[in-house]
């Protein structure tokens, strides 16, 4: 087994195990996103990737629109998150945060497919505040 080390983003609070490592799903999302970005930075910008919430696997397609990405999931879209390709790379920490947010939205009964607005990347402080609010909503329900 090969262990690949990566540094955490400043303020990263979403490590999944006792050793401070993120789950494989976050690595899959980050790797796939960055591969698509590097493969055709200008051509893929603005396209969407679809990832399974359960394990971070994607279908390898860079869809022209969010709607195309949803259609491409063949009625399983509520179990996916849809990520737009931007000009910047995605760290494993950012992927872990996206997955955690999408999973929390799913648990709250708000799958990502219902959102029409793309939320820009936030500062670490704003992201932490958003995550606390989502967690509080989940705690009230459970």
Jot down its keywords.
5 helices; two-stranded antiparallel ribbon; globular; mainly alpha; disordered N terminus; 142 residues
Q: What does this molecule look like?
A:
The protein is mostly helical and 142 residues long. It has one domain. It contains five helices and two strands; from the N terminus they run H-H-E-H-E-H-H. The protein is globular. The termini are far apart.
Distance between the termini: 39 Å
The strands making up the biggest β-sheet line up spatially as 1-2
Count of helical regions: 5
Q: Would you list the SSEs in sequence order as H and E?
A: HHEHEHH
Proportion of β residues?
5-15%
The value of Rg in angstroms is 15 Å
User: In terms of structural class, how would the helical and strand content be classed?
Assistant: mainly alpha
Q: Quick one: overall form?
A: globular
Mean pLDDT: 81
Query: Would you report the number of β strands?
Result: 2
Biggest β-sheet description: 2 strands, antiparallel
| Low-confidence sequence ranges | 1-5
State the helicity in percent bands.
40-55%
Structurally, the number of domains stands at 1
């Amino acid at each position: 087994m090969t262990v690949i080390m990566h540094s955490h983003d400043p303020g990263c609070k979403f490590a999944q195990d006792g050793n401070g490592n993120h789950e494989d799903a976050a690595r899959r999302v980050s790797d796939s996103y960055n591969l698509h970005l590097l493969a055709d930075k200008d051509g893929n910008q603005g396209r969407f990737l679809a990832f399974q919430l359960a394990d971070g696997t994607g279908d390898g397609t860079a869809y022209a629109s969010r709607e195309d990405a949803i259609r491409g999931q063949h009625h399983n879209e509520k179990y996916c998150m849809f990520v737009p390709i931007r000009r910047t790379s995605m760290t494993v920490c950012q992927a872990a945060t996206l997955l955690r947010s999408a999973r929390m939205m799913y648990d709250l009964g708000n799958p990502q497919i219902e959102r029409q607005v793309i939320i820009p990347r936030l500062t670490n402080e704003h992201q932490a505040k958003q995550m606390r609010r989502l967690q509080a909503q989940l705690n009230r329900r459970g």
